[in-house]
């Protein structure tokens, strides 16, 4: 959070606000007239004008719309109160040494690895070689101008946490998987880690754009580890005829996080995501899919929410044109005192003939102290579709438990087997 | 009343393996006395709803069944034991409607159950596949989910694999013939006769004549609410010709 904005330090104690106790304090500061005026006064000549305009209009939008509130469709009273009460004050910032040890090794590693920490992006040397088939890392979008207009246009004003994340990131990073790489990054996947530099509740943010160019097949292994507060806003552009596969594993390391993933799916593209998340003191994971025509979206979530943790997810699939398919399958396990909610929505426009969608959210409550919510929404404007949904919240099946016990498994082992099989 | 034989007199030199005394379950069974001996095969019959399945599952320890009286296996008092301990003590039940567990493969279930017994891994998979093939279960059965998307007959055959591989002392099968085709019945009879030996006890709930013939039981038990009538195979013949009210 303590960083440079256009060569000017911001969010530091000498600014108008001494401390930022929670998100509302930070929101008030970055939407203040004083702060917005900084964006105009301290414009770096090297920064492309489009980006400055985009950043400023994002702040103004944020100022007009405020932070998300419980009346928004994708949130509910279940979740936001906790987030807004989180203390993000940096009391004793201690750099996590493991991160920087990792970064030292990163430079010489021959693996395809990218690490994102608080708006900065680090890559292995091998990944960033200048070649037509190499991954292009446009760190701080400012250093490359040719695609600024397109990329900045893609940073939408959404009304969720994306605007706040971008507001605190300033410079988005762009990863381009060029058409010439073909299947290269499918056979040798790219690992992208989202980590914190500190072990403190302080907020750190990343705004990334990942561009899968036409006819390319890419696999990403995303590792999200929150030792502090972490808000990520990633826009994936999946261009015509491309396939994007994501294996996302989130680790609870004592922090909290919000991860907004936006997928802009061009015609004939495929997106497959497998995600696992144990929750944390507060975790929100949102997926937004915008599908043109003949797009296939498959999202599988297997989330074993640990004792006392919270995990809230929102999934929206917008189908704008013909013959899109979407399969959403989220399963959550609720341990003692945990809270989860799922809100899923299919928005199928009148022009989206031939849409085939299935939305399933199954929840297994292992404890009566767990609280689990599920809400499917189908917003359909055409008749020519096939759409199913099913949401369940249940306890461990006593018949299954007895069946396993009769084969010799004790209660604990039988429960564990049932949890594993539920998540399969 | 049909003529019955007191098998306990004929087998007086054997030690009762599984013994129920003043045994009551919920409001279904009341003060039942019955003994199942080592090395013997039993058929359990009874009119619909009399409590045959309840009897078997209460012996296995199903938690929702309230039991009073005595229940011992050899010298072990089973009554306060949880289900898994009873299984470890030697009891096995093959379900009338085996429970589906999506996400757990047939082999994984058996592997983990055998791990508890300390069996060798390599041998287990080969043995599992051999058993599945012998029972004419489809190719890849080991990888399919437990009792999920399976026919009634396939589920029953799967229980037979468990019976063979877990190799418990007392096997209780609840209508194992239902859902099986002609070949399946033959496989069932062969499996049960192959499994049974002088050190274990087979208890089968059935009303299927051919199965009773194939098993050739040492005793036939007719379950009543507060009584068990014990006889030889002719007791089953009487039931088939005259009905339960005749005994």
Task: Please provide a written account of the structure.
The complex is a heterodimer of chains A (424) and B (247). Chain A has 424 residues and is of the alpha/beta class. Chain A has one domain (95-423). Chain A contains ten helices and 21 strands. Chain A has helices spanning 23-30, 33-41, 49-65, 80-85, 97-108, 148-154, 162-169, 184-187, 398-406, 411-423; strands at residues 3-5, 8-10, 113-117, 120-123, 136-138, 173-177, 190-195, 203-212, 217-226, 229-238, 243-252, 256-265, 270-276, 283-291, 296-305, 310-319, 325-334, 339-348, 356-365, 371-380, 386-395. In chain A, the strands form three sheets. A ten-stranded mixed β-sheet of chain A has the order 4-3-7-9-11-13-15-17-19-21. In chain A, strands 5-6-8-10-12-14-16-18-20 form a nine-stranded mixed β-sheet, covered by helices on one side. In chain A, strands 1-2 form a two-stranded antiparallel ribbon. Chain A is globular, with a radius of gyration of 22 Å. Chain B is of the alpha/beta class and 247 residues long. Chain B has two domains: 16-100 and 166-246, Rossmann fold; 103-149, no CATH class. Helices cover 36% and strands 26% of the residues of chain B. In chain B, α5 (121-134) packs across α6. The longest helix of chain B has 15 residues, at 152-166. In chain B, 42% of the residues are buried. The interface between A and B is medium-sized, with 23 and 28 residues.
Summarize it:
Chain A is α/β, with parallel strands linked by helices and 424 residues long. Chain A has 10 helices and 21 strands. Chain A has helices spanning 23-30, 33-41, 49-65, 80-85, 97-108, 148-154, 162-169, 184-187, 398-406, 411-423, and strands at residues 3-5, 8-10, 113-117, 120-123, 136-138, 173-177, 190-195, 203-212, 217-226, 229-238, 243-252, 256-265, 270-276, 283-291, 296-305, 310-319, 325-334, 339-348, 356-365, 371-380, 386-395.
| Secondary-structure content class of chain B | alpha/beta
Give the strand tally of chain A: 21
Distance between the termini of chain A: 38 Å
What would the average pLDDT of chain B be, to the nearest integer?
Answer: 90
Largest sheet of chain B: 6 strands, mixed
Q: Roughly what percent helix of chain B?
A: 25-40%
Q: Report the CATH architecture of the largest domain in chain B.
A: 3-Layer(aba) Sandwich
Instruction: Specify which chain pair forms the largest interface.
Output: A-B, 23 and 28 residues
How many domains comprise the coordinates of chain B? Answer: 2
Spatially, the strands of the biggest sheet of chain A line up as 4-3-7-9-11-13-15-17-19-21
| SS summary, helix count of chain B | 9
Structural class of chain A: alpha/beta
User: Any idea what the radius of gyration of chain B is?
Assistant: 18 Å
Broad CATH class of the largest domain in chain B = Alpha Beta
